Structure formats: structure tokens, C-alpha cells
Amino acid sequence: MTVTVNNNSNTFSHRRHHLVSFESESLQSSFLVLCHTLRDCFRVSFLCAVVCVAFVGPYSQLYDGWTKWMHNTVHESNANNKEEGEVYWSDRLFFMGITLIVHEGLYYFLNGMFMAFTYFGFFQQYRIERLASQTPSAKLIKKTLFESAIGHWVVQPLSLYLLFPLYVKRGMSVATYLPPFWLSVFQLAASILINDCLFYWGHRLLHHPRFYKRFHKQHHEYTGPIGFSAEYATPLEQFLSNQLPVVVGPILFGMSTLQWSVYLFWRLWRTYEVHSGYDFSGTYLGRIGLLHGHGARYHDYHHTHNVGTFGGPANAFWDYFFGTQNQFAKHEDKIGSPSYHTPYLF
Asked: Cβ contacts of residue 48 below 8 Å, gap of 6+?
């Protein structure tokens, strides 16, 4: 009888030790993911703030040139124009123009560059392996470009026109203005965290059976994504996943137009690269965190397998804590790919 009690006691003790060990490892992993999320957020926001400071001069020259041209043009056509209204409309058009330049420049140039890589066979060592059936057809690409033209050149200018008063009400300055450096870092970092949170939950909602077929399946016509496919979506998805997460932070914090432009540039670059089908994480720029190769592999799995990974490795806080990256983690472990959340990536 005494022996049996000891065996049970030993078994219980072993199980308890195993449970404590598991909980300890889980806590360490959770802490590591949180640290990596905050690390990437701070790194990106710090670099964006530095870029803002570096571009104050060129931006100031561009803005001053624009306002002088608008002033001369308006006064030639309407000598009785009120100065205050003139500045408001000049700033409104400048805000729309700078946003369009950043968006369209990246959309066509960066995504066109990725397509050229594929067409001419450049950087094939970084190409994510795909099945032949996952290569998008020319018909699908043409459809994507046609639909994007409507969104980019009709819907977007109208949206920016309507959003501008809200930006101004929240304190946005179109003229050359930057807040103190560390306040700028905070505003950018908070905007990134808000973007990643809203994108994760909006994307996950669109994968609910009630909404997927009607509102999100279109985006998954690309079983192997390319850069141009990033914005191939229904109007609801465009608003819920592509637009709302991006603008909430800048509007909330009243970012200046210069901050907004740099932030938008980074956000679009990340989006297009993670859809590109290229994993540049092994390059020098990738290792120091300036490229998004891990994100490309992460999101590529989402398209090729259509399961989980609703966010991305740089914002895997949500995927990790809600278990929506488990299948991807098993897949990466199976093929021997290093996890994004490893200390050597610091």
C-alpha cells in the first residue's frame, strides 16, 4: 500500500513538473513574441522618424513651390479670393497629390519590378517555391490591373478629398512641420500597432464562413500571390483591411502630411513585398530588418494553404496568442525553415 502511494505521488510530481515546465516554456515563448513585435515596431517607427527629419528640406521646398504656384494661379483667375480659403484648398490638393504619388509610384514601380524579376528570371534563389497551378494567369492579372485602376484613380481621390477635413480637424499640418522626434516615434509606433491589430481582426472576420465567399474569396483567386494582388479585393475588404487600419492611427494622432507620407510608403512597401512571392530574409537588408522576407513566406502560406496566418510575423502577436499560426509553424518546422521568433534575428 505504501509503495503504491509513493508511485502515485511520484507520478503526480512528474506531471506537475512537466506542466510547470510547459507553462514556463509557453510564457517564455509568449514573452519572446511580444518582445519581437515591439522590437520591430520600434525599429520601423524610429527609421521612419529619421526619414521624416531627413526629408524636411526637400518636402519644404516642394510645399513652398506648390503654394506659390497655387497662389499665383488662383489670383490670376480670382483677385477677390480670400487668403484663408486659398490656403485650405491648396493644402487639400497637396495632401491628395502627395498621397497619390506615394501610392501609385509604389504600386506600379515596385510591383512591376517584382513581375520583371519573375519574367526575366532574376533573383530566382529568393523565389518562394510554387506549384505550376499557383501561377496566376494573364487574364487574372489583367483583371486585377483594370479593377485597381478604378480604385486608384476614381475611388481613392474621392476618399482623400472627403477625408481631408477630418485630418485637419485632428490637427494634421500640411505645411512643413514635425513634432519632437520621440513624439514622432511614438505616433508612428502606435499607428503601426493599431494598423496590425485592425488588420488582423478585419482579415480574420473576412475568413468567417458567413463572409468569406461573398467578400474575401476574390482575393484568394491568387493561390500564389504577386505584388499586384495585394489590393485585388472587394470594396468591403478594401475598406476593412486595406484602408481603415492604415488611416486610423494617423488621423487619431494628427500626423503631419510628411509623417503620413513616410508611414504610408513603409506600409505599402511591406504589403507589396509580402505578396511578391520573394523571400529576401537571407540578404543583408533582410537580416537587419529592412526587408520583409519572413512576411512574404508567412503570407504566401496563407494564400497557398488558405488557413490561419491572418497577420504577419512582424505583427504575429495576434496570430500567436490566438493560435492562428500553428499550422504555419508546423509547416516551417517540417521543411526546416528558421522561425522568425528566434534570438539571432535581433
From this structure: 188, 259, 262, 263, 266
Sequence-ordered strand ranges (E) for 20-157: none
Q: Across-strand partners of 127? A: 278
- Whole-angstrom CA distances from 185 to 190, 295, 345 are 8, 23, 22
Contacts of 12 (CB under 8 A, 6+ apart): none
Q: By the 8 A CB rule, do 126 and 280 touch?
A: yes
Residues 272/107, Cβ–Cβ less than 8 Å: yes
Q: Is 299 exposed, middle or buried (0-12, 13-18, 19+ CB in 10 A)?
A: buried
What is the C-alpha to C-alpha distance for residues 172 and 165, in angstroms, rounded to an integer?
9
pLDDT digits (tens, 9 = 90+) for 257-292: 999 999 999 999 999 999 999 999 889 888 877 888
pTM as predicted: 0.88
Cell matching residue 328: 504555419
Confidence of residue 315 (pLDDT cuts 50, 70, 90): low
Q: In 3D, which of 154, 153, 173 has the Cα closest to residue 95?
A: 173
Q: Under a CB-based contact definition with an 8 Å cutoff, are residues 26 and 154 in contact?
A: no
Amino acid at 342: T
Q: Could you tell me the end-to-end alpha-carbon distance of the chain, in angstroms, rounded to an integer? A: 55
119-133, 134-148, 277-291: the lowest-pLDDT one: 277-291
125 Cβ neighbours under 8 A, 6+ residues apart: none
Q: What is the predicted pLDDT for the residue at 182? A: 97
The grid coordinates of residue 284 equal 543583408
The mean pLDDT value for 3-8 works out to 46
Kindly report, residue by residue over 156-172, the tens digit of the pLDDT.
Answer: 999 999 999 999 999 99
Q: Which grid cell is 99?
A: 498621397
Q: Using CB atoms within 10 A of its CB, is residue 32 exposed (0-12), middle (13-18) or buried (19+)?
A: middle
Q: Which residues contact 29 (CB under 8 A, 6 or more apart)?
A: 320, 341
d(CA 261, CA 102): 7
Which of 325, 265, 328, 213 lies closest to 106 in space, CA to CA? 265
